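Side project, low priority. Logging it here so it doesn't get lost.
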Amino acid sequence: MSADTYEYIGSNLVARGHAVIKVKNLQVTADAITVNLLTKDLEAAGNVTFATQVFEKRNLTPEQYEKLMEQPAYKVIAEGISTKPDGNQTILATVISNCAYLSAERASGSMETGAFQFRNFFIKAGYMYFRGFLAERYPNGTVKMFDSRMTTCEYEMDSNAHYGIKSSVMTLKPRESNRSIHNYNPDMGEHSLLMLSDFINVWNVPVFWLPALYKPADSNSFGIRFEFGDASGWGYYLRTLKEFDIIEEPAVIRAGLMVDYYSNRGLGMGTSVDILTANSKTELFAYYLHDRNPYNYWDKARNKVEDGWTDKEWFAQYGRYELPNDRYEFRLANLTHLTPRLDFRGVVDVISDFNFLEDFFESRYNENEQPPSYAAVEYQGEHFSATLQTTFRVNDFYTTMERLPELRIDIFRQELFKNIYYQGETSAGFYRTKWQKYDFPRGMNPNLNIPALLIKENKTYLWSEIVKRYGITNKYGASKYLAAEDPEAFAGYFEDPKDYSSYRFDTLHALYYPIQLFGFLNLIPRAVGRFTAYSDSSKKAMDVEDLYTMYALDEKYKWPNYEIKAVNYDDKGGARYRFAVELGLEGNVKLSRAWQTPRNAYWEIDGLRHVAVPYFNLIYIPKPTEDYQHLYYFDEVDQIEETAFVRLGIQNRLQTRRNNRLYQWISMENYWDFHFNKSKDFNHIGDLGTIFRFTPTSKLSFFTEFLLDVGNNNDHDFEVYRKGESVGRPGLSWKLINKFNAGFSYQFATDWRLTLNYNYSDAYVQRTIYSMGSTLAMVNATSSFKNYMSREQTISGTLSFPTFDKRLKGRIFASYNIDADLIDALGVVFRRDFHCWYLILAAGISNDRKFHSEKQRWRKEWSPFLSFTVGISAMPGLAYSSNFERDIYD
């Protein structure tokens, strides 16, 4: 303790003039301080301050140093300069920050219990500021403030905050571990804050009143979100969310309440609940809306409803579902750590219709178009893992492969005997593929052309009977007649894929014997055996083309082509048992050379090391004992066929040191396959693939992937159609290329970053390159088996840039579909950060091409949009958003 003068009055010590008391990291100053030496009661008057400071040693880049120097909340003391081996320099500095600060005219209380009272106070705690007439701190750490206001605007230090929330009573509660007056933690994420009778003020002018506001602990906002706008599918809308804590012990339970209004759709309400314990997390989400116009989404996505049509009739032109008025979702998810090695995870997601998520929660739809429902218990051992799981369908508008249930055991690769390694996997369960169910059968397809089907099947003599019975307009009646009259010829045109199921037991066992010859040649011969048993199968053969036909009929958004004839498995094949064997040999040589002298600060190079690994992988799978065409398809286990090829490749890596670790500067892998046997549509020569990555610094990255058809296995003659007419092969049309992807990102100056992406895929067929006992690099990683790829070609990019105002940043974005000659997205986003709040303005446009049935012509649809967001910088969740969009036709 220090002061200008001291005086003892009984058991009280009175310090006057620049009085200072330090207790651990807490410092109290005042004009006068009186301390009772027996009770440790304290009374301070005149310019009273309570402050805590944090000292932190840091290595700062010049950019970080400059940013900290600009912030008044930090004091930076430079102590030296450190030079890295690559030549880059950092500043050794001590960063001092005032974590908590309180000033008042008068303070009194007990240093022993921590109970205090403050008059005419000002508090700075983390990013929040409080000012008011009276504040009381209780021994449990709770602080109550009366007739006070809160803000995150640092101008409050001068009583000139741009906004604030004035409240009659504020209650600030820390967590249990932060209740001591000495170890006070200013992180407001560790506090809950309750405010009663609140006025939101802008420049001290009340603009809005709320009865109460609550900020949960572990949150940096009051959990309030507002979004207002105008969308063609919704009309004018207001979406609101309020989050709050229910309890904190023995489990943390948080809840959210959603109340939304859409002028064209109705009122929607929902809730979310999160339950956190030391070993589990449970999430619940429920939402309901009685939709006045469930087809409004389709007005936007499938053209405006033309005169003379109802919404329902117009929708039937494009889809096979009847959308309900009662729209909802109920989702329950749980993850529990039963033991350190045993986990349970499960999800049940019930949705009213297939279009609900895309209509109202598009971001979740983009993450997962078909939310799964499953339950699994997983055990992770040192040498094996075991999983008991079930996946099941709760929404009949989704196609689902069900496991009812499945037990799976994976044994990790491990040494059995001297230099002999074993790896295995075994699974058993009941499997069922359930195809989505439609509200309208295929025979109701408005595009159905009965005469065309009769000509295709050479059955034109049935036309007169059809006209006699059903006329020329009752297509549905004609379809039922044809399916019954000649099911072999016509039933497939009016059927959907049929469900199939089977018990399946599958076990795989692999042995490896790694050896090295001549001190540099690494060889790994392997032998793999697999046995699979099925309780049911198909007598009818179904090849890959038939499977693709089934998936072509599995349409959600539109009617399938009426000329596609469904081909389904039958259930007459009985039980089948398949043995499959793989013999293989992997080999590689590792070559490397290091250079210690290269150093470059810009490229962050501290020495270089080049590693080259030429390799080969020989795979031979003789014909299994059962043809895959008769086995029900659930996953890749069921597609194994005779395969014999060799993979030749080379991996190149250029490495440097960074932070005492190896850093991959450049990597490139080239591979080529040679097949020993010919098959339908393919010769011996496989594709040539290249995967290239260049990431020298965090500011620059480049990647490219391309797959070349060096064997001329595909015709590459697919033509693009626009407005129903062929436009040839626009853009990249070199017949040697199956697939080509490239991406580039470069920050070439402060706040300047350019990103470009190009994606191209021709229409081609990929040959099977499957191995049961080794892993193969692939440019196209969708499947290892025969696969049909569709043509697509897009280019996209963004440019982030600064402006004349260093707090105003912009970003231009663009995406163009080359084949369709359409702008997927084009726009600009500006963000202006003020000292305590931010403003985001975005504007853009996209376009599409639609056929106008009444005018019988194609027309372009332009969809401009404008969005506006304003929020509190220190509380990202507390923001107001407004979105406006329109559809304009040429």
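Brief comment: The CA atoms of residues 297 and 359 lie 6 Å apart.
Revisit when time allows.
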